């Protein structure tokens, strides 16, 4: 994560003891259309003694009635009709409407009388053309009648009809998108840090310092802590469920099946290897060795349980979705939590972007064809940063209350990442590389919270304790530690613990990645 959410669980500066910063200091139906009803009238059998060509029953009845009207005078209203004599030239049974007879088919639907041919169901194209004609007719009919009132009424009727036509036109696209999702991918493989860690830190037992492995973490969906740094599911979990797949298990889990996906993410992960930071004197602030390249190696180690040969693995991975990140937040936290300024973090940015790009290429070499690479969140909007950095009032956004210099930093990282992905697309035209946007939704959560069911307030953690400012974040009483309290309903907050997001927020982001608009292209396409 960027110098934002501190969610890295990396080591904090000497004056900060955060469980998410350092292990040492942390407590831390198809509906079955019955063919009978719409088509029976067009298949009426001929009258027994009628040599005339077969005509629809409705037309035949009209002809018979016209004959009978000529044969006898019109009777006064309210009088009873005379009884037709059997020797009349008109058959008695033909004077009443033909009664449709139905018989049940083997599938339970009803079929027309033997010999009848059901009419075909109108195609969607025919319905749309009919709709367009009906939308135009009111306007045409109004012309020549004169009067502004008639014209206004015609416009209203036409406008409503056009809206119906628009829905009909969009229906095939929506149906195709919905039908595409289930079964599109055989598995989902995820890489990243604490934003998407499903519990790789707790597969060998729960460390004493890891507060994210205690309640109330996991309370909303699972009812118990799973190692996820949230009250429930993460973005990757929602995406897997969208495609009808189980939640990807932590890759370190024992006796787990990885045939439909695995989650290699681990809290505190970086894009760059630990050696990179050690050479720059930042090794103490990077306590987790699970970098992107390490996680990719974990995937390679898992391949024998997934496929039988190199080509078999490539074929399998070509039908899977790979989520690569986010990465970068913990890389940038290394200098920041060591007490250095933001300029030192800027110096790391080209290395971080290159590391992410190299990791994507390694996965493509393994056979990946569909990858989504997320950017970082607006770090200046998270309670952990708003509490640690007391910038003057002019350093905060007038509408969001976020730290402008940290949000600018996150924006620059995302812009550089997008350019790197454009280069990868040009280099690998047969691979679909998508950008996942974390930045925009968080800003929208703050500016337009009512659209997502959140409270209108400054950035505030659902789980935490009062500290400096109104952010409900206290470095000595973080979520899961003594003194911390949880809000009544996490669905009303986008920030869970001041560092990570709530399940509700992750759900909105996941839907934005799947169907738009949070990304440069939706994962689920309509074509």
Order of helices and strands: HEEHHEHEHHHEHHEHHEHEEH
Q: What name does the CATH topology of the domain at 179-515 carry?
A: Rossmann fold
Any guess at the CATH architecture of the domain at 179-515?
Answer: 3-Layer(aba) Sandwich
Give the overall silhouette.
Answer: globular
* Biggest β-sheet strands, sense, barrel: 5 strands, parallel
Look at the helices and sheets and give the structural class. Answer: mainly alpha
CATH class of the domain at 179-515: Alpha Beta
Helix content: 25-40%
N-to-C CA distance: 33 Å
The residue ranges in which pLDDT falls below 50 over 5 or more consecutive positions are 1-73, 81-121, 137-145, 173-180
Computed over alpha carbons, the radius of gyration is 34 Å
Strand order of the largest sheet: 4-3-5-6-7
Beta strand count: 9
Average pLDDT score: 78
Strand content: 5-15%
What does the model show?
The chain has 527 residues and is mainly alpha-helical. The chain has a domain at 179-515: 3-Layer(aba) Sandwich (Rossmann fold), CATH 3.40.50. 35% of the residues lie in helices and 6% in strands. It is built from 13 helices and 9 strands. It has helices at residues 57-71, 124-142, 148-180, 235-242, 274-278, 292-302, 310-317, 329-336, 342-366, 383-388, 404-427, 439-447, 503-515, and strands spanning 103-104, 110-111, 187-191, 261-263, 320-324, 370-374, 432-436, 463-464, 485-486. It has a 5-stranded parallel β-sheet, with helices on both faces. Strands 1-2 form a two-stranded antiparallel ribbon. Strands 8-9 form a two-stranded antiparallel sheet. Helix 2 (124-142) packs antiparallel against helix 3 and helix 4 crosses helix 13. The two termini are 33 Å apart. Residues 1-73, 81-121, 137-145 and 173-180 have low confidence and may be disordered.
């Amino acid at each position: 994560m960027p110098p934002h959410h501190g969610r890295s669980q990396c080591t904090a500066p000497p004056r900060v003891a955060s469980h998410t910063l350092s292990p040492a200091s942390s407590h831390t139906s198809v509906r079955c259309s019955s063919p009978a009803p719409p088509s029976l009238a067009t298949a009426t059998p001929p009258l027994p003694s009628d040599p005339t060509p077969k005509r629809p029953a409705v037309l035949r009845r009209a002809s018979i009635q016209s004959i009978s009207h000529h044969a006898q005078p019109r009777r006064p209203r309210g009088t009873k009709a005379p009884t037709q004599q059997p020797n009349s030239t008109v058959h008695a049974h033909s004077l009443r409407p033909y009664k449709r007879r139905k018989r049940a088919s083997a599938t339970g639907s009803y079929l027309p009388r033997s010999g009848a041919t059901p009419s075909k169901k109108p195609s969607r194209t025919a319905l749309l053309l009919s709709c367009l004609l009906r939308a135009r007719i009111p306007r045409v009919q109004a012309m020549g009648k004169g009067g502004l009132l008639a014209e206004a009424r015609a416009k209203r009727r036409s406008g409503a009809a056009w809206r119906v036509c628009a829905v009909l036109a969009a229906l095939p696209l929506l149906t195709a998108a919905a039908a595409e999702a289930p079964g599109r991918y055989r598995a989902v493989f995820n890489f990243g840090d604490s934003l998407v860690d499903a519990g790789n830190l707790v597969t060998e037992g729960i460390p004493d310092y890891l507060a994210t492995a205690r309640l109330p973490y996991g309370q909303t969906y699972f009812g118990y802590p799973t190692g996820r740094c949230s009250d429930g599911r993460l973005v990757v979990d929602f995406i897997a469920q969208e495609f009808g797949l189980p939640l990807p298990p932590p890759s370190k889990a024992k006796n787990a099946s990885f045939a439909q996906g695995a989650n290699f993410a681990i809290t505190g992960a970086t894009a760059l290897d630990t050696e990179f930071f050690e050479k720059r004197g930042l090794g103490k602030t990077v306590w987790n060795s699970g970098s992107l390249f390490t996680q990719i190696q974990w995937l390679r180690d898992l391949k024998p349980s997934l496929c039988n040969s190199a080509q078999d693995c490539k074929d399998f991975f070509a039908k899977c979705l790979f989520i690569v990140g986010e990465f970068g937040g913990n890389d940038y936290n290394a200098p920041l939590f060591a007490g250095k300024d933001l300029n030192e973090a800027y110096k790391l940015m080209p290395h971080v972007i290159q590391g992410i790009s190299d990791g994507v290429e390694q996965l493509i070499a393994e056979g990946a064809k569909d990858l989504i690479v997320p950017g970082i969140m607006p770090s200046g909007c998270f309670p952990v940063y708003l509490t640690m950095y007391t910038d003057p009032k002019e350093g905060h956004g007038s509408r969001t209350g976020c730290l402008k210099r940290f949000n600018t930093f996150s924006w620059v990282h995302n812009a550089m990442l997008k350019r790197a992905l454009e280069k990868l697309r040009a280099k690998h035209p047969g691979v679909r590389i998508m950008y996942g946007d974390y930045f925009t939704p968080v800003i929208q959560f703050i500016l337009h919270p009512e659209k997502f069911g959140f409270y209108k307030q400054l950035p505030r953690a659902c789980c935490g304790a009062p500290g400096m400012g109104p952010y409900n974040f206290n470095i000595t009483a973080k979520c899961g530690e003594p003194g911390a309290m949880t809000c009544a309903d996490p669905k009303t907050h986008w920030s869970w613990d001041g560092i990570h997001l709530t399940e509700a927020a992750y759900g909105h982001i996941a839907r934005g990645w799947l169907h738009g608009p949070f990304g440069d292209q939706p994962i689920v396409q309509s074509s």
